[in-house]
Design brief:
Helices cover 23% and strands 28% of the residues. The chain has 604 residues and is of the alpha/beta class. Strand 11, helix 8 and strand 12 form a beta-alpha-beta unit. The longest helix is centred in the middle third of the chain and has 18 residues.
Length: 604
């Protein structure tokens, strides 16, 4: 019998983060080129070109925008708008990302129950036998061959997420989910699907590229998965990057394939649609793969709304906008994050003051009330992979709820830890890994390492100190000490007094950090003094509505030690009028910045 050819198309989204529409809820205005709504028209066109199409999502779709926060506030009585949107577009399957757990298991389970499509997760599973994602699924379809005849095909789908999910979301998961290593779990699931008769196996891998070398507990394992798991195609994500892309260099990668496997990583917030076309041959008994083509399609802004999404999500979108317009306070200072990675920042001061106020009120009258209370905070919307729009800029004047969401976008809660003076110093050393090591003989090095996320620049309010960047970093990104003799933190004092290793302090931080994320010192269960599940954003709003909240207190006091070196720093072009706030660094405008950015030479 002659071999006949058919085509199967995979369409993929990843890291939508509750962006059903291209809308900037922080500024309350449209934002072109983002959102599932723009991709929806492209999905319709791609399906029309190839009737044999599967639409898949790679995780992190429930949380990450004010629309998702609004949905979480409504509880279980209101369908989640992202699930409604995905139902309307006819998704065929999805895997769970780490942020699916950010608003808690009850919301996740309700969202899964409302979905018209299945969820898969090979390495995140519940401790009990309650309803949850399946380890893998089989989808039986009919595929039209080159002669126009419809023949059955069995498609296997499985998925993985970073095993660190149970650490990052420990406060929400509460021990009810267990995680296993991604590569062994995926390999086992793929093998089981083959044994069950799958002609084609697709791996929804909520993970980034990472290292080609496999290590236990790796977060980003795309390359080992491509080499070892045995899937026919992979959808990647988690790191908010894109693949294939001319600017992306993937060790072990060969164009749009990884170790011979077609792969796409479709950005974030609906910035791209992944498309993999799989050419299949039928030998009379089963289908087999004969060729693939992987493409990444940038979102194309459209003027007309997608009627399917508008009908199921439009009311939720408008309700979220109304909710976000609630008045909550006043600011007497300009709140912006343009220089939050290189200078003390009013936003971080504000969050630190709110954290400390909550902890102080909670511990009043206890035996711990006499210990000094400090606060650890990091900048969240500070450029980076979020792009040039990922900055906070709130002018002096009235504050609305959307501003609080802008300042603190994550659903973390406040936790208080008991730390020593030595641990405070190491906490700051861990934060300092974001900076390059400077040498006066090598001018104009980029000051901030692009692979260090801003949310790990976790500084401590209430202390005074300097960064000496001629020294190498003491820790790595996992919190492992790599240079025991290196100390970037100089002149660490509290209240004008030098801190000693044995001094004791109460440190207010967030649940993500206290669970051990990032490897900061002292983040162990036996150090927790307060964990009442009060959300950091709620404490921020409470602070802003109090008599204390109109002016951010001067809580941060840090600077760079003068070392006679220059370095470069890129920030949004809209920051240029605010350069006087970093005049101590003597900024000079340079060429070479990406569109929408400005590059400055700084003098340290």
């Amino acid at each position: 019998m002659p071999t006949l050819v058919g085509m199967l198309r995979l369409l993929a989204t990843s890291d939508l983060h509750a962006h059903a529409f291209g809308w900037d809820y922080h500024a309350d205005r449209p934002q072109a080129g983002l959102g599932l709504s723009d991709l929806a028209h492209m999905i319709d066109l791609a399906r029309a070109e190839c009737p044999n199409t599967l639409l898949l999502d790679n995780g992190d779709f429930l949380q990450g925008s004010p629309l998702g926060d609004w949905a979480a506030e409504q509880g279980e009585d209101v369908p989640h708008p992202m699930i409604s949107a995905m139902n309307a577009l006819g998704y065929d399957a999805a895997t769970l990302g780490n942020h699916e757990f950010s608003h808690g298991l009850p919301l996740l389970r309700r969202a899964m129950a409302d979905a018209h499509f299945p969820f898969v997760s090979a390495n995140l599973q519940p401790v009990d036998d309650g309803p949850f994602a399946q380890r893998s699924i089989l989808i039986d379809r009919d595929l039209t061959d080159g002669k126009g005849k419809s023949r059955p095909i069995r498609i296997g789908i499985t998925g993985i997420a970073p095993p660190q999910t149970v650490i990052w979301e420990a406060g929400q998961i509460d021990g009810q989910i267990v995680a296993s290593d991604a590569v062994p779990a995926a390999t086992e699931a793929v093998s089981a699907l083959r044994r069950a008769g799958a002609d084609i196996v697709i791996l929804l891998a909520h993970t980034g590229m990472g290292s080609a070398r496999l290590e236990q507990g790796m977060e980003n394992v795309a390359l080992p998965l491509a080499r070892l798991a045995g899937a026919d195609a992979m959808i990647l994500g988690h790191t908010h990057l894109v693949f294939p892309d001319p600017a992306t260099v993937a060790p072990g990668g060969d164009g749009p394939h990884l170790h011979g496997k077609p792969a796409v990583m479709p950005g974030f917030f609906g910035s791209h649609l992944g498309q993999i076309d799989m050419t299949l041959r039928h030998d009379g008994s089963h289908w087999s793969l004969s060729g693939t083509k992987a493409d990444l399609l940038p979102a194309r802004p459209v003027s007309e709304p997608h009627l399917g999404l508008e009908s199921v999500c439009g009311a939720a979108h408008q309700a979220a906008r109304t909710w976000l317009g609630t008045r909550i306070g006043q600011t007497d200072v300009h709140l912006h994050s343009y220089f939050s990675r290189i200078a003390p920042c009013n936003i971080m001061r504000l969050v630190a003051a709110a954290e400390a106020r909550h902890v102080r009120q909670s511990l009043t009258g206890t035996s711990l009330a006499d210990l000094p209370i400090l606060s650890a905070t990091a900048p969240f919307r500070a450029g980076g992979r979020g792009g040039v729009a990922n900055f906070t800029d709130i002018p002096q004047g009235p504050l609305e709820l959307r501003h609080a969401v802008d300042i603190y976008p994550f659903p973390n809660s406040i936790v208080a830890l008991l730390l020593t003076g030595e641990e405070l110093g190491d906490w700051l050393e861990r934060a300092a890994i974001q900076f390059a090591t400077l040498d006066p003989a090598q001018p104009d090095r980029p000051l901030v390492n692009t692979d260090s996320p801003s949310f790990d620049f976790d500084l401590i309010a209430g202390l005074s100190f300097q960064f000496d960047l001629t020294k190498p970093p003491r820790f790595d990104a996992r919190g492992q000490c790599i240079n025991p003799d290196a100390h970037r933190i100089r002149d660490l004092t509290f209240g004008g007094n030098q801190i000693t290793p044995a001094d004791r302090f109460i440190l207010a931080t967030n649940s993500y950090r206290a669970a051990g994320s990032g490897g900061f010192p002292g983040c162990q269960p036996d150090r927790i003094l307060l964990d009442d599940k009060t959300s950091t954003r709620s404490a921020l709003i409470s602070y802003l509505t109090s008599d204390e909240g109109s002016t951010a207190p001067a809580a941060y006091d840090w600077s760079f030690a003068p070392v006679g070196a220059s370095a470069t720093f890129d920030t949004a072009a809209t920051a240029e009028p605010l350069l006087p706030s970093i005049s101590a660094l003597r900024p000079e405008l340079l060429d070479g910045a990406a569109p929408g950015y400005r590059r400055f030479r700084l003098h340290l």
